[in-house]
Design goal:
Elements lengths: L2 H22 L16 E3 L2 E4 L4 H4 L7 H17 L1 H10 L6 H26 L5 E2 H21 L7
Parallel strand pairs: 2-3
Antiparallel strand pairs: 1-2
Helix pairs in contact: 1-4, 3-6, 4-6, 5-6
Length: 159
C-alpha cells in the first residue's frame, strides 16, 4: 500500500471514529410523539433493551407505521454503523484479515460502545439505551465489511 493511500485510510478511520463518538456518545433526544420502543427496561437512569430480536418479538406492540419505520431504520443503521470503520481497518491492518478476528473486533467495538453509553447515562443521563440487538447488528455490519473486502480481493484471500 502506498503511503498516500495509508494516510487517507488513517484519516478516514479517525474521522469516522469521531463520527461514531458524536453519534453514540452524545445525549439522545426524546423519541418523537407516538414513537415508542417496546420491551424497554429501566433501572434508575439506566435503560436496557435485553430481549434478543426485540423488533420481532414485540412487533405486536407496535401501533403505527411511524413506529415500524423507526424500528426498521434503527436496525439498518446499526448494521451499517461499524461497516465503514471495519472496512478501512481491514485495509490498514492485514493481521485482521480473518473471519474470527473481524467478528471479534466488531463485537468488542459494539460492546465498548454499549458499555460506554451505560456509563454516560449513569453519570450524565444521556438518554441512551443498552440494546442486546445492537451487539449482533453492529457485529453483522463488521462481518459484511469483511465479506465486501473478500469479494473485492477474492484472488488474494484463501479464508
Amino acid at each position: 500500500m502506498t503511503r498516500k493511500r495509508e494516510l487517507i485510510l488513517r484519516l478516514g478511520v479517525a474521522v469516522y471514529g469521531l463520527c461514531i463518538v458524536c453519534f453514540c456518545f452524545t445525549p439522545q433526544p426524546q423519541l418523537p410523539i407516538g414513537v415508542e420502543t417496546p420491551g424497554i427496561q429501566t433501572f434508575g437512569r439506566l435503560v436496557f433493551l435485553l430481549t434478543p430480536l426485540n423488533s420481532l418479538w414485540n412487533l405486536g406492540e407496535v401501533t403505527s407505521l411511524g413506529q415500524v419505520l423507526w424500528i426498521f431504520l434503527q436496525n439498518i443503521l446499526n448494521v451499517f454503523l461499524l461497516f465503514p470503520l471495519v472496512f478501512q481497518l481491514i485495509y490498514l491492518c492485514p493481521n485482521l484479515r480473518q473471519t474470527k478476528k473481524i467478528i471479534l473486533l466488531s463485537f468488542l467495538l459494539s460492546l465498548g460502545i454499549e458499555c460506554t453509553q451505560l456509563v454516560l447515562d449513569f453519570l450524565f443521563d444521556f438518554n441512551r439505551v443498552f440494546e442486546i440487538d445492537d451487539l449482533w447488528t453492529n457485529t453483522l455490519g463488521g462481518y459484511l465489511a469483511w465479506v465486501l473486502y473478500k469479494g473485492l480481493h477474492k484472488n488474494k484471500i484463501r479464508n
